[in-house]
Amino acid sequence: MNIDQVIQTITEKKLLTSRDVEGAKQRWFVANRTESADVKMFLKWMVLNKFLSEFQAMVLVSGKVSALTIANYKVIEIIKMGAYAGGVKVQNPLGEQFALQFVKDEVIKDPASNKKFQGQLQIGLEIKHPHLAGLVDNGESNGHSFIVREFLEGESLEMILSRRGKIPHQNAAKIMAIVMVAVAHAQEKSVPCGNLSNSDVFLATN
Question: Taking the CB of the first residue and of the last residue of the chain, which one, N or C, has fewer CB atoms within 10 A?
Answer without folding.
Answer: C
